[in-house]
Here is the input.
Amino acid sequence: MDTKDTWATAGFGEAAYAALARGMPASEVWSLLLSAMRERAEQRPARALTEQWERDRFVQFSYIDQRTLVELDSHLLAAAADFEAVELSPLAPLGSTSSVALTTQNRVVSTVRGTEVVSDPTNVLALESARRLREDPASVVRFCTSHRCVRAQEVPKVPGFAAHFRMFCMTSAAHERKDQTFVTDALTQHIRTHLQALDRLEQHGYRFPNRRVRLLAIEQREPLAKRIAASIEGVPVAMEPLEKQYYDGLRFMISAHSAAGDDIPLIDGGAFDWLHKLAANHKLVFVASAIGSQLAAYAYRTVPGEKRG
Here is the structure.
């Protein structure tokens, strides 16, 4: 990196920047940054706090009532009864996202204590899955969680999008089995669970009409996608080629028409190679999926404050 070409490092020499970024022990860097932030905080007048509160997209209230989100979480957790429900810390180890997934740290809110604000719970659940599989290689690890995520990239300035949002995730991890049955069974279970969750929500003031499942696969994994498609009933399933490298050869998306009539890809999931990196074991399989629960409350809730069914 040429520090002379970036406004963020203006005033730093290359040696000073290299020391902060790579040379100094991490504990010394954290202490230095904490000292600087303490002085910054002590110098801030009350006016600066109120001004930031009014303009900073990271600190604003959610646009969905908390009672609605709590009720929604309860239905999603009930649908995912086969998964262990865990409550995550708001923070994760620094690099939890960018070190294993194809993303940049610039999209994550990093802290000065060697941590980062959770931007995607599935990356955190991959860390715990790797730990448990080291302890018990024969186990199958299944998690679910509802979490408020924070992401640093710009978001569209339209209703339904925000810098922080609630997401409901499920993950499955284990050693692969004969004929790749674990990855196909896990993806099938995730798809069925999400569809059952939508069914449940439709009994409580939501509508998800015109549902559609898309199965995306690289050429080598098309036979697996066909096996998954054959296991899904009651909803149209379309097969498509997978181009994005973010997934490990298999991906699914579930869409439905919103109350406004828009076809929104509300649910996304697939297979990932993250455990290959975290556990240095290419026989481990990790499947993760998520529903934008806050978006569901915004775009699909049709009877506010009333139960149906």
Remarks:
- The chain has two domains: 3-43, 66-299.
